Amino acid sequence: MCENYPAPDVVLQGAGACRLSEIQSVGREKHPAVLIVNVWPALTAKLDCDAARFGAGQVESLLEDFCRLLASFVSQSQRNVSEFLDELTNAAAERQYARERAYFEVQHRLRTDRHSAKLASL
C-alpha cells in the first residue's frame, strides 16, 4: 500500500493556485509496519513498526531488503519496479525456507538424540 501526502514545507513553498496549510498527522498508522519516505529537503526513510508484532530480526530483515532495493534502483535503473519486487519476494522466500529448514534440522537432531539416549539406557 502506498499513501502520498505532501510534505508541509514543500507545499507551503510551492508556487501555485492551490495552497495547503497546517498539515499534520492525526494518529498512528493502523498498519503493523509503515515505511515513511521523505524526499525534501533530502531523501530520508523511517520504518515505524509495531514492536508487539515484529521481532528485532524481522525489522532488521525489512531494513536490509529496503537498502538492497534502493541500491538496486541506483545500480540498475533501466529495470522496472516489478523486477525488483520479484527479487525481494524471492529473497524473502529463500530466507523463510532457510529458517524452516534449520528449525526442522534441530527438531530432527533432538528426536535422534532422545532416541539414542533411550537405546543407550536399555
Task: Report on the architecture of this protein.
- The chain is mostly helical.
- It has three helices and two strands.
- The protein has helices at 8-13, 56-75, 81-121, and strands at 33-38, 44-49.
- Strands 1-2 form a two-stranded antiparallel ribbon.
- A hairpin with a 5-residue loop joins strand 1 and strand 2.
- Helix 2 runs antiparallel to helix 3 (81-121).
- It is elongated.
- The termini are far apart.
- The mean pLDDT is 76.
Question: What integer is the average pLDDT?
Answer: 76
Spatial arrangement of strands, main beta sheet: 1-2
Look at the helices and sheets and give the structural class.
Answer: mainly alpha
- List SSEs in N-to-C order: HEEHH
Number of strands: 2
Rg, nearest Å: 23 Å
**Overall 3D shape:** elongated
> In angstroms, what separates the terminal alpha carbons?
60 Å
Largest sheet: 2 strands, antiparallel
Number of helices: 3
Low-confidence spans:
none
Helix share of residues? Answer: 40-55%
Strand content: 5-15%
